[in-house]
Amino acid sequence: MAKKAEVRRRATRFLYLNDTLYKRSFDGMLLRCLSKQDAIKALYDTHAGTCGAHQASPKARRSRKLS
Protein backbone atom coordinates (compact mmCIF):
# COMPACT_ATOMS: atom_id res chain seq x y z
CA MET A 1 0.00 0.00 0.00
CA ALA A 2 2.80 2.45 0.82
CA LYS A 3 4.34 1.97 -2.64
CA LYS A 4 1.00 2.73 -4.32
CA ALA A 5 0.58 5.91 -2.27
CA GLU A 6 4.15 6.99 -3.11
CA VAL A 7 3.57 6.54 -6.85
CA ARG A 8 0.28 8.41 -6.68
CA ARG A 9 1.92 11.30 -4.76
CA ARG A 10 4.86 11.58 -7.17
CA ALA A 11 2.70 11.27 -10.32
CA THR A 12 1.12 14.67 -9.69
CA ARG A 13 4.49 16.29 -10.47
CA PHE A 14 4.59 14.88 -14.02
CA LEU A 15 2.69 15.75 -17.18
CA TYR A 16 2.58 13.90 -20.50
CA LEU A 17 1.88 16.41 -23.28
CA ASN A 18 2.29 15.98 -27.06
CA ASP A 19 4.28 12.72 -26.67
CA THR A 20 6.74 14.41 -24.29
CA LEU A 21 7.15 13.83 -20.55
CA TYR A 22 7.54 16.92 -18.36
CA LYS A 23 8.17 17.38 -14.65
CA ARG A 24 6.53 20.34 -12.97
CA SER A 25 9.07 22.36 -10.95
CA PHE A 26 8.18 23.96 -7.62
CA ASP A 27 7.69 27.33 -9.33
CA GLY A 28 5.28 25.77 -11.86
CA MET A 29 7.65 25.68 -14.82
CA LEU A 30 7.53 22.53 -16.95
CA LEU A 31 10.91 20.81 -17.26
CA ARG A 32 11.28 18.41 -20.18
CA CYS A 33 12.49 14.97 -19.14
CA LEU A 34 15.53 13.95 -21.19
CA SER A 35 16.78 10.55 -22.23
CA LYS A 36 20.29 9.69 -21.11
CA GLN A 37 21.61 10.46 -24.61
CA ASP A 38 19.81 13.84 -24.75
CA ALA A 39 21.06 14.72 -21.25
CA ILE A 40 24.67 14.02 -22.25
CA LYS A 41 24.26 16.19 -25.36
CA ALA A 42 22.70 19.02 -23.33
CA LEU A 43 25.56 18.93 -20.82
CA TYR A 44 28.11 18.85 -23.63
CA ASP A 45 26.47 21.78 -25.44
CA THR A 46 26.30 23.81 -22.23
CA HIS A 47 29.91 23.19 -21.24
CA ALA A 48 31.37 23.28 -24.76
CA GLY A 49 30.43 26.90 -25.22
CA THR A 50 27.52 26.62 -27.66
CA CYS A 51 25.38 28.40 -25.06
CA GLY A 52 27.72 31.38 -25.00
CA ALA A 53 30.59 32.35 -22.76
CA HIS A 54 31.09 30.65 -19.42
CA GLN A 55 28.42 32.31 -17.30
CA ALA A 56 27.46 32.46 -13.65
CA SER A 57 25.02 29.78 -12.55
CA PRO A 58 21.76 31.81 -12.41
CA LYS A 59 22.33 33.28 -15.87
CA ALA A 60 23.22 29.89 -17.40
CA ARG A 61 20.17 28.29 -15.78
CA ARG A 62 17.94 31.01 -17.23
CA SER A 63 19.38 30.53 -20.74
CA ARG A 64 18.67 26.78 -20.59
CA LYS A 65 15.05 27.47 -19.57
CA LEU A 66 14.57 29.86 -22.49
CA SER A 67 15.89 27.57 -25.20
Name its key features:
67 residues; alpha+beta; 3 strands
Description:
This protein is α+β, with helices and mostly antiparallel strands and 67 residues long. It has one domain (2-66). The protein contains 3 helices and 3 strands, in the order αβββαα. It has helices at 2-11, 36-48, 57-66, and strands at residues 14-17, 20-24, 30-32. A 3-stranded antiparallel β-sheet has the order 1-2-3, with no helix packed on it. Strand 1 and strand 2 (20-24) form a beta hairpin. The chain is elongated, with a radius of gyration of 15 Å. 0% of the residues are buried. The mean pLDDT is 78.
Order of helices and strands: HEEEHH
Side by side, the strands of the main sheet go 1-2-3
Given the structure, what is the number of helices? 3
Instruction: Give the number of domains.
Output: 1
Task: Give the terminus-to-terminus CA distance.
Answer: 41 Å
Please provide the count of β strands: 3
